[in-house]
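pasting for the record
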Amino acid sequence: MRELTKARDVVEYLGGIDAVCAMTGRDYKTIYHWMNGTFPARYFLLMTTALKKRGFTAPPALWGQEEQAA
């Protein structure tokens, strides 16, 4: 699986702003704002599951999640 490291890439590979709006129930402006930062933690499972179905992963930090040290 290919790892996406930027929020902008996550939105793009989930189908773009309109697709993420439909997925999360949020408006265009909100998704656009997320693309320049992080996503709300409550969408972590929803969005990472959708990414996985498309052959991608993304670091949990993009949703404000802490990763366990290796």
